[in-house]
Amino acid sequence: MSQDDPRLAGLEVYRVGGAVRDARLGWPVYDNDWVVVGATPEAMRERGFKPVGRDFPVFLHPETHEEYALARTERKQGHGYTGFQVYASPDVTLEDDLARRDLTINAMAEDRAGHLVDPYGGARDLEARLLRHVSPAFVEDPLRVLRTARFLARYQGLGFAIAEETRALMCQLVESGEIHHLVAERVWVETEKALGEPYPEAYFRALSDCGALSVLMPELARDCRALEEALARLHRLPEEDGQWERWRWARLCEHLDDEERRRLGERLRLPRAYHDLAHQTALTHRLWLAAPALLEGARVMAWLDGIDAWRRAERVAPQVALVSLANPELATDLALAWRLAAQILPQALLDEGFKGKALGEELRRRRREVIDDALASSRS
Questions:
Q1: Is position 70 within any domain?
Q2: What is the per-residue pLDDT for 60?
Q3: ∠ CA(363), CA(369), CA(372), 5° rounding?
Q4: d(CA 237, CA 323)
Q5: Considering the domain boundaries, does residue 244 fall inside one?
Q6: With 0-12 CB in 10 A as exposed, 13-18 as middle and 19+ as buried, what is 109?
Q7: In what order do the strands lie in the sheet with 58-60?
Q8: What are the angstrom distances between the C-alpha of 75 and each of 30, 53, 89, 100?
Q9: 50-51 and 72-76 as β-strands: parallel, antiparallel, unpaired?
Q10: How many domains does the chain have?
């Protein structure tokens, strides 16, 4: 923000939230959020700011397109993270606005000269590496359970931990039943963000510790040992694939049976791409668990059919790469079997005179035959 920006002349403006936090941690800052104290919506529009907020006054700067929100307070009116009445007025102070935020490290501000405004001890908690709630109002918003867990997934590598008193409030939000009022879409948004953080396992452990995982994702929470094994897999991904969030979700769920994955996906309203990759990875997980003693052509054919390899050939290589993390020899065998089977094309059989049902049967027979030969050659 330039101090010479004429659109901001006479306004009391502060940079707030994540930009202040990450700058003090030495992390890159990509977006700035601003709070304007003492102004009205009319004053912002007169200066050329474009209103975009539906629930409270937020405006976009006409040139930088950064967000400028009028200072506001919130009062709990109902259940869930949407059950709040927002009050935005020129008499709302910066301290009032910061008080409604979740964690102290998110409740710091800087004035236009870069001076820190820190009424709730965010800088102290940054130094102490603590995720601490701003006020007892933390328990009014169940989304804060997920956000706190997600910040732990981001900063655990820096030594951050959740303050014990904040963890107690997270447990209280679960025990009161307030966590049940989170809508599926919002749970998934936070979970997907956590899957992209440096330490996603910290997110699920934090939710498990406070009881939220049993409510929101009971299929993952039912077996503590299986959950820990799944969390250990989150950093073992195919190197050639950049879809880290999707792969981490798939690895997290690969041990679940089909019905458990279906229920979990429906509860979270999982995007189709996540559902499909989780299904493919579960099939691969079962294949390499059974191998090499039970590896045979029929099993490999069923696996290729299951991941729809004949129509979606691009799915095979990442799954083979996944197998190589656990069993490199098996991965080599699968890659050879697939390469040979994929060379048998329907057109060649059409040229030989096969058609209709006979064409499909012969295609499967020949593919199965070269897969059997490849496996037999490997064993010998």
A1: yes
A2: 95
A3: 140
A4: 10
A5: no
A6: buried
A7: 50-51, 58-60, 67-70, 33-37, 12-16, 109-110, 116-117
A8: 30, 18, 14, 9
A9: unpaired
A10: 1
Which amino acid, residue 190?
E
Query: What pLDDT shows up at residue 208?
Result: 98
* pLDDT, position 138: 95
Strands 58-60 and 50-51: antiparallel
pLDDT-flagged residues of the chain (< 70): 1-3, 55, 76-84, 240-241, 291-294, 380
How long a stretch of residues is the chain?
380
Residue of 118, 93, 89 lying closest to 12 (CA atoms)? 93
pLDDT of residue 79: 53
User: Which residues, other chains included, contact 198 with Cβ-Cβ below 8 Å and sequence gap of 6+?
Assistant: 153, 154, 156, 157
Strand partners, 205: none
pLDDT at res. 71: 95
What's the predicted TM-score (pTM) here? 0.90
Residue 280 lies in a domain: no
Asked whether residue 277 is domain-assigned, the answer is: no
Given a contact cutoff of 8 angstroms between Cβ atoms, the answer to whether 36 and 70 are in contact is yes
| Tens-digit pLDDT profile for residues 166-215 | 999 999 999 999 999 999 999 999 999 999 999 999 999 999 999 999 99
CATH of residue 71 = 3.30.460.10
> What secondary structure, in 3-state letters, does the chain show?
CCCCCHHHCCCEEEEECHHHHHHHHCCCCCCCEEEEECCCHHHHHHCCCEECCCCCCEEECCCCCCEEEECEEEEECCCCCCCEEEEECCCCCHHHHHHCCCEHHHCCEECCCCCEECCCCHHHHHHHCEECECCHHHHHCCHHHHHHHHHHHHHHHHCCEECHHHHHHHHHHHHCCHHHHCCHHHHHHHHHHHHCCCCHHHHHHHHHHHCHHHHHCHHHHCCHHHHHHHHHCCCCCCCCCCCHHHHHHHHHHCCCCHHHHHHHHHHHCCCHHHHHHHHHHHHHHHHHHHCCCCCCHHHHHHHHHHCCCCCCHHHHHHHHHHHHHHCHHHHHHHHHHHHHHHCCCHHHHHHCCCCHHHHHHHHHHHHHHHHHHHHHHHHC
For 84-134, write each residue's pLDDT tens digit: 577 888 999 999 999 999 999 999 999 988 999 999 999 999 999 999 999
